[in-house]
């Protein structure tokens, strides 16, 4: 099971108004384990970054001036996330931005590239209704160290989210361990409702049947025995 925990930073809050992606950060999970592989890139958005956005992530126009444009990094990004399940906090935001970038250059959207999307924001609201569900709040709830997060950053946030996601879904580990310990589980004929192995039938011998029948006849009024013949019956 391959999953990619993903985050982006952008020039502003709304791709429909022309905002663009300026940073992509991804970390890879395989069978719920961090593999050490990651994808990280800064992108020249070909427009100014909003002052409010700079206050959040600290990525300036000057810093981005010599960075590659999205068409230059699209293939590498696609290759990293292809066929994986994406894990994203507030997925509609990042997916909307990335789909817009891909669509601008005629590339397939994430739904065609990837196996699906898990939104940890939605998951957190379902698991803890009425509680704060920001990444910082979840780090505090699940005791994920985030003191070094003074500004938002796509790769840093993806790394933190990976730890949070694993903590939020810790109960799934028992299932993974069971699958590893018994490869037959989950396969046809295994422990998930497949065909059972043939059952060996041991039949009673003639002597055992006779002994059993004699014992039954000693039980007075047993329902499984035919009723005794009535006195004065047919002769």
Q: Would you summarize the structure shown here?
A:
The protein has 235 residues and is an alpha/beta fold.
Give an overview of the whole structure:
With 235 residues, the chain is of the alpha/beta class. It has a single domain, classed as Ribonuclease H-like superfamily/Ribonuclease H (Nucleotidyltransferase, domain 5, 2-Layer Sandwich). It has helices spanning 51-57, 61-64, 70-81, 91-104, 110-113, 120-127, 135-141, 154-168, 173-181, 206-217, and strands at 2-10, 21-30, 33-42, 85-88, 116-119. Strands 3-2-1-4-5 form a five-stranded mixed sheet. Strand 2 and strand 3 (33-42) form a beta hairpin. The longest helix is centred in the last third of the chain and has 15 residues, at 154-168. The chain is elongated.
Q: On the 0-100 scale, what is the average pLDDT?
A: 85
Order of strands across the main sheet = 3-2-1-4-5
Number of domains in the coordinates?
Answer: 1
Give the class-level CATH name: Alpha Beta
Could you tell me the number of beta strands? 5
CATH superfamily: Ribonuclease H-like superfamily/Ribonuclease H
């Amino acid at each position: 099971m391959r999953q990619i925990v993903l985050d982006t930073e952008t020039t502003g809050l709304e791709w429909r108004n022309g905002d663009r992606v300026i940073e992509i950060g991804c970390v890879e999970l395989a069978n719920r384990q961090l593999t050490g592989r990651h994808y990280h890139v800064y992108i020249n958005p070909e427009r100014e970054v909003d002052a409010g956005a700079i206050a959040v992530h600290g990525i300036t126009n000057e810093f981005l001036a010599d960075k590659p444009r999205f068409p230059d990094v699209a293939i590498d990004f696609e290759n990293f996330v292809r066929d994986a399940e994406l894990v994203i906090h507030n997925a509609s935001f990042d997916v909307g931005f990335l789909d817009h970038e891909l669509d601008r250059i005629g590339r397939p959207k994430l739904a065609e590239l990837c196996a699906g999307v898990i939104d940890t924001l939605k998951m957190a609201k379902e698991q803890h209704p009425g509680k704060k569900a920001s990444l910082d709040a979840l780090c505090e709830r699940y005791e994920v160290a985030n003191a070094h997060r003074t500004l938002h950053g796509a790769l840093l946030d993806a790394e933190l989210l990976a730890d949070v996601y694993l903590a939020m879904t810790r109960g799934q580990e028992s299932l993974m361990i069971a699958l590893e310990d018994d490869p037959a589980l989950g396969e046809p004929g295994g422990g998930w409702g497949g065909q059972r192995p043939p059952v060996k039938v041991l039949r009673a011998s003639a002597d055992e049947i006779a002994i059993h029948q004699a014992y039954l006849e000693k039980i007075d009024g047993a329902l499984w025995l035919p009723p005794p013949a009535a006195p004065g019956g047919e002769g």
